[in-house]
Request: fold
Amino acid sequence: MLLAKKKARPKGRTRRAAGRAADAVDARLPLAESGRALLRKAFPDHWSFLLGELALYGFVVLMLTGAYLTLFFQPSMTESVYLGSYAPLRGIRTSEAYASTLRISFDVRGGLLVRQIHHWAALVFMASIGAHMLRVFFTGAFRRPREANWMVGVTMFLLALVEGFAGYSLPDDLLSGTGLRTAQGIMLSLPVIGTYLSFFVFGGQYPGDDIVSRLYPVHILLVPGLLLALISLHLMLIVHLKHTQWAGPGRTGRNVAGKPFFPQYAAKSAGLFFMVSGALAVLGALAQINPVWDYGPYRTDQVSTGAQPDWYVGFLEGALRLMPGVETRLWGHTVMWNPLVPGVLLPGALFLVLYAYPFFERWITRGSGEHHLCDRPRDRPLRTGLGTGALTAYAVLLLAGAQDVIAYTFDVPVHALTWTFRIALFALPCAACWLTGRLCLALQARDRDLLEEGEETGDVRQSVQGGYHPEHERLPLQKRYELLARDLPRPLEDRTDRRAPAHRRFAARLRSSLSHWYYRDRVQPPTSAEQRREIEAVLAGPDEPGRAPDRTDDAN
Reply:
């Protein structure tokens, strides 16, 4: 008994000291109250919301593996004779960057595994960002008050493209050198400033001696730092603005129903991190990627056969191959439309549309309230059709970027294949947009039939006239709630004041026309006036932005 009391005294003193220290810290930095609120914050439980976490954990793996590779990589284009352990290249002059990449792959313990995990993590990171942005777009999660967070996400996507290209170019092998040569051609296509920009980036006449040493701090310091800051801002905005959620019983535009961050959601998220890390480790160990020793060191007079960039910039390669070689002489300067249009104007237009789209949809939509419930893609036929058309155009450009490989594999003429892709680039996205819109309307009509008649039971009843009719049963309450709690905006009416200036009348007519084009096709559910008022109450956001109550539950 006495011995137990002696053992308990140090534990008690330690507990009291820890309590006093915690009280002292909380008195100066009130962390307890904010930490308690964060730990109990509700997060909706749906698989589609995990796409952003996949990107986050891919970035974490990239940071960890990149820190290890930094210890051994030499960002220098100084040439020397390679005398390493890879026999086929022994005695060949290579840059220090390429030689250190070979050394990481063959001489550093675990180097090849870490390098391949790093490359696979980069692909998963880009794919997760793309899938997450598509989820946000198709469900309308970019609408007020989340426009700023959408713009942060688009900026992260742009920085991720820059980061991927910089890391892809560092090994100075024949494949990455071909990509740098393409990038230099795009720089030279800029009128007036192209030559100066190329000399600045490459440190002189191509290929120069500075490109690798300049890309290195961009890849390991500048862009990762910006990404880390934007990810932190992105998460802070999610916490402040509340998470979007799917419609369902107990879930409205004024609350957030889901699992508390700790311990339920944190445990699931941690499990996802270990799953992502394990999958990347398996890929790095079993699936070879970017074998630089097969390509050899970069030489300006050589091009790698079948050279293809990583998939996330494959659309740019395809656009370069499909654009005709047209040039124009203006004011003493030659404008090369290829690669200016596909290499500069096309990506610029893409990101301009991505940044502006939330404000465009808000401009043509009746009302400007907050939106906290996710749209089902079928309830926005044109938005879903436009997104599908954009994905179709990307797929065509991605295939066009491998036109030489396709022509060689299937023994078809490159010229005919190029024209096929050119026609498909304009025809297929339009067809995909129209077809997707019709499918969305068909699904809306099916939902209306389910609300009116219910689900088929599989039984058939014979009438007194001898006819056969399938039996239906009423939808469950939860299913009816999900089908009814949807926002179907009406087109704006043209209320142009004829006494207004001409430019104002034109803007009002344009806004009304675009709104009718965007929202004219819809299938109205069978609801009464009272039900419509209830639906509007469910969809309505809080009166004060950012102060909607949270609610945690176990059945989401």
Observations:
- Residues 414-453 form the longest helix (40 residues).
- Residues 544-556 have pLDDT under 50 and may be disordered.
- The first strand starts at residue 42 and ends at 43.
- The chain has 19 helices and nine strands.
